[in-house]
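Reopening this one. Same input as before:
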Amino acid sequence: MRPDDWQLTEDVDEFLARAGEFLRSRAVPHIMLLTVTARLRAHGSAADGAQAPVSAPVFGRLERAGEVRASFYRLPARGLGATPLTPEQADTLAARLAALGHSLPYVSADQGTATAFAEAWQRHTGATPKIRDTRLHLYRLGTLTPPQPSPEGRGRVVGEQDREQLMDWCREFAADVGEDVSIDADSWAGTRFADKRYTFWETPDGTPVSMAGVNPTIAGLAQVDIVYTPAHLRGRGYAAAASAEVSRAALAAGATEVALFADASNPTSNALYQRLGYDLVTDWAVYDFSYDAAEAG
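Same output, byte for byte:
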């Protein structure tokens, strides 16, 4: 295997024409590439609120005997994301990108891939990798098991009349998870929060007490993304009810797989999702790269 076995392109449609079947064949492990390419096709390079990029996104695939074996993406001014890679694949990818002059701020992938690439990137560039403290678990829904007993109330699809409440809760969620994003009426459409379908869990008198969002279904895969309950309402089962309802709705709408990420350091949310029938698929990690030592040498 050689570094130039990796075929690169800046055209997302060209990339998907060759790698799309491979990505769809294992939708859950390939969740990030499926999500990123879908958003780029829908919104262009401004997806996720990116500001006036000075470079184009880069996509790559590793083909052997006419079959795609692995792939990656890099958005402007951001890090690398990849499908699961073997150590050899990670090394050839690092060598290819280093030879092209890429300076990556980070790599984000399943734990094994992220570690293998971080080590390879250090070998080829001298950059120092440091794993982020925040790590994630990736879950896939097995058999949905709604909470018993369920809190009183019902799920309701969020409508246009709920926009102010929805933006308030998305701002609070972003603050809770340390996400630096501006959310208001003017910026809403350019954020990653805007393309989701949300469900509120309401008490019997119609008061929203929790919410859960789900991304558009891609290749049969729906990702539950954004589960939030205001701090003073937690511990009453509302998040479990909202998560179960949005998962049920995704399946009813035709999704064949439902997945989500959870903060590995939060035992409450991880236990909640496992009670609902979510099974652990893999751990997810991010390594940040420092180039001070490399530049000094």
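So the earlier flakiness isn't reproducible anymore. For the record, The longest strand covers residues 278-290.
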